Amino acid sequence: MRADAERPSHNWEPAPPDVRRLPPAWLIQHSFATGTGYSALRVTGDALMRHVSRALAAICIGLLITPLAACGSDSGGSGESGAIKIGVPVPLTGDSASAGQDILAAARVAADEVNAAGGVNGRKIEIIEADDACSAQQGAQAAQKLLNSGAVAIAGGYCSGAAVPALPIYGRRSVPFVLDASTNPVLTDTGDGKVFRTCGRDDKQGLFAAKFMTDQLKAKRVAVLHDNTTYAKGLAEAAANSIKQAGAAEVVYLDALQPGQSDYTPVLTKIASTTPDVAYYTGYFAEAGLLLKQRAQLGLKFPLVGGDATTDATVLKTAGTAADGYIATTAPLPKDLPTASSFVTSYKSKTGADPGPFSVYEYDAVKVLAKAIGDAKSTDGAEVTKALHAIKDFAGVTGKISFDQKGDREGLLYITVTVKNGEFTGYKKLDDAGTQWVDVKPA
Predict the structure, then answer these.
(1) In principle, which of 21, 191, 231, 267 could form an S-S bond with 160, CB 3.0–4.6 Å?
(2) Where is the Leucine-binding protein domain (predicted)?
(3) Is the pTM of this model over 0.90?
(4) In order of start, what are the domains of the chain with their CATH numbers?
């Protein structure tokens, strides 16, 4: 039984705080003069008709206050006329704000291109954003804000920790969610088929990282460091488990730092005491830059490898020359993708800056949603979700895109990049068979 269909108590409850959006169930429950809710339906004859009339009157008042509230949708993109609203939840405040701004700009580039080509089913695409601040609480609030603003589909999600609590909110309205950067496996494992990714998964990246460190860096002793966020902890555990299962190396350290600090020398010193051949840091770019800088100041020799949240240019600004030779596992960056050259040009023309690492995956997320809405000839969530599952080999700027049954992107995705001449550049990747390491060729 749904929660909103359960028999209410006989206690009179106060109105919801937003009186403009009174739910019909609440209106019915609280419209009877006796205050006994559904129990009043036990009366018969004229009394019953009086109670029902009051209930219907209350519903009508509610519908006049919010015309579309009973339909569970808002005016704008959720109907079959006007602009089609695609919501973009990203961090616009906090340490990850630069990544969020980059993703939002990429979404707008994609929407502008779709609109210039005639839109979708004769309608324009409109991008609406909400700040999730990379936090669980604000992630849920951002999701509700986007739905209240009429979003019929979602493209974004930089931090897994903010995306996970948003899932049930989108799910209750059957709104499809295409992730551009949130890589925690739980997002598609429990997404009930309504969640998709243009990016990869942490378990696949963890396996890739483990193989790279043991194959290419010849590591026998590996330290793994995360920051206790949903994303970072998941990637750290995936890498550590892959190392243990392969039996090619020993995990000598697995722990977390406290994000937002300015001094990580105690953490680095503790890692050094385990004499690792390499340390793998799976947190975000703000801390990665400090770790590189302070590692150099301490004169530590073990290499530091990072995950895909450490390829932001902020790392280079923070670490300076200490970032030289730094390696990170990541999905291909815009400059490493031959198919992304036109996007890079458009992005730079509109923003005056180079696109960040996840910009291309957001661009593709918006484009693939536009195709699905066009194929469905509807903005109905169930129909758009069905169309997304039917997409095969969509020509994205990040390569061909197809989704498996869970909504994950099919195929090999991860590469390594290294810092050379003050910028991230492609380094090594596995061949199409996934068996041999080859150089990443410049785009």
Answers:
(1) 231
(2) 84-407
(3) no
(4) 3-71 (no CATH), 84-199+338-401 (3.40.50.2300), 203-330+415-439 (3.40.50.2300)
